[in-house]
Amino acid sequence: MGRTSQLIVVYTGFATMLEAGISLLRVFEFLRESHKGPMRRVLTGMLDALNQGHTLSGAMADYPRVFACFDRTLIGAAEESGNLDMCFGMLAQWHEFMRRLKRTVVSGLVLPLFVLHIAAAILPAGKFVLGQIEIGGYVKNVLGILMVFYVPAVVLGVILFLGPRLPALRSLLDRLVLWVPVLGKGVRELCIARFSRAFGMLFKAGIPMSECFAMAPQIVGNGVIAKMFAGGAQFIARGEMPSGGFSKKIPSEYRELWKVGEETGKLEECANKIAEISSDRAELLLQEFARWVPRVVYFGVMMFMVKSIMTLASGYASSLSLPV
Asked: Could you give the CA distance from residue 73 to residue 29 in angstroms, rounded to a whole number?
């Protein structure tokens, strides 16, 4: 069972047992006994921290690779409001949603990657068979084709890893992602969903609106999208409705729905509604992206193969001293 799957099981267990009235420490003991390996050690360490007087969010902070900032922030707010069972249930649903999105994108990339590797092995084979290149040249050609994919992938991985220490690089990546057709729109919707969901839970926990606007953008996941909501805090400081400070790049229906929540006093419900709508749109867009990636790869491989065949035919005709 992967880490995300284990996390969903743990969060679901917390939500169910806390709602049933079982104390937090007893829940930890039950869940610890039902898990093995790294997750068991994490739960044991957190239980020890709780017994020493630490808060739950503080105990989670000792394991940042297991519990993301998004989770820790929401759990911290839920501790203050006493809504831990609800918060764990919503986090379980959120991670299940994210896992479904990840599977959609990954499943859409598996076959194109397989085709890319097969094509990289086949395309230089003609020159090798005809004796135009040696084995070393053949391997070099194969690696050259694969590097077209692997170099950008490695660069992306480095930026993601070094992002917190090199914010300029991460900011550049955030901007570039939003420019990718279909994927950019999906990421935008996903980030809006994260902001809205976080704000709704923080606001429900009784956190002042100004603090909600200070905390929610930190867990959006994209600096460009986070800045689109930054004006809300400025408008609150001036005694105005926060929606007036939202960027015009945020879809108008979301801004209007937010205004309705401000005017009717149902801001939490409207924020959650925005989260539902944007989550559904993000899923549809990422599914569409996963469908189009194979087509783009296949078209690129086909064009490269046509070019290679024409070049090979031209070289073969020249070697026979035939007019081309």
From this structure: 23
